[in-house]
Amino acid sequence: MYRLNVASEQIEECIKKGMFALSARPKISAGEILLLQLRKSDWRQQGKNGGRVQYALVFQHTERDLDGRISKEHWPNANKVWPWIIYSSAVLDVEPFSLEDLPLTRESHYQSQANPVQIDPVDEAVIAPYIKWPSAYALIDSTEAQDNFVYAISENAKTIEEISTEFALSEIKKWYPQADIQVMNHNNPGFDILVTQKNRVIRYVEVKGTQFNKPKFHLTETERKFSIINSSIYSLLVIWNINLHDGTYNFDRHDGEISVGDIIEPYTYLGQLKISKSA
Q1: Which of 33, 70, 79, 110 is the most exposed place for a label (fewest CB within 10 A)?
Q2: Strand partners, 91
Q3: Whether 14 contacts 57, CB under 8 Å
Q4: What pLDDT score was predicted for residue 105?
Q5: pTM of the predicted model, to two decimals?
Q6: Which residues, at least 6 apart from 93, have a Cβ–Cβ distance to it below 8 Å?
């Protein structure tokens, strides 16, 4: 877990895009939690509403901003460019708090100008209860329009979805017996189950269920992209040959990117014709 100081005029873009700018390349692993702490002077100007920390990011990777183009595009009013940009896989809501108000062992309460600042494990345990893990919302560069369409779902399909999630949970608990496992809200983009351990995301799991006698599944473009950009901590779990009567099933697991031509093939396209003037 790390602390990032952020200015009020920059925090909206951080939350919306899951991005943050730094002067030096950080040594952070995928899945680490980044606390977004509002700059104290900005917090005071806003009337000290809530705590200084209200959101957190899940670290994904860094990118070099060689010409300052990324900095200027996302923080045009900062009058500054940064050589390194952080990208996140998800954003988390946090029960508002201020680090300086918590009973932490670090005397400074992690208050400095440096970014990022690593939180000691003993203090992570104090902070962890404020993180709302079920609020995790996937951040993807571009969500295809087809993912936003709502299709009719049969009662049988709903039952299959519920049962496959239950089966998936039982398997995941075997793989990660010491981890915390959270089922996301229905239609959460990118993944269905979040696995965390020691205040770090260790696995995103997408679950597919079918009664078919082979592990076949449908995948949206958003889900495919999420598997690519989070390949190091991503798994697809297909629960297949589900028998609703006796509760039996088979399952197969794939870790990493879901690649076209290897695991999936183009199957259907979303189209839209131009509306004629006579319509």
Answers
A1: 79
A2: 57, 137
A3: yes
A4: 96
A5: 0.86
A6: 54, 55, 132, 135
Report the amino acid identity of residue 100. E
Which residues, at least 6 apart from 96, have a Cβ–Cβ distance to it below 8 Å?
50, 51, 53, 54
Structure token pair of residue 45: 């100007």
Give the residue carrying structure tokens 């977004």.
36
What is the distance of C-alpha 185 from the center of its chain?
13
Could you check whether the bond before residue 215 is cis, i.e. omega within 30 degrees of 0? no
Q: What is d(CA 238, CA 258) in angstroms, rounded to the nearest whole number? A: 13
Domains of the chain: 2-138 (3.10.590), 145-255 (3.40.1350)
Tokens of 96: 């508002």
Query: What would the pLDDT profile of 251-269 be if each residue is shown by its tens digit?
Result: 999 999 999 988 888 888 8
Write down the residue that tokens 């010491």 correspond to.
178
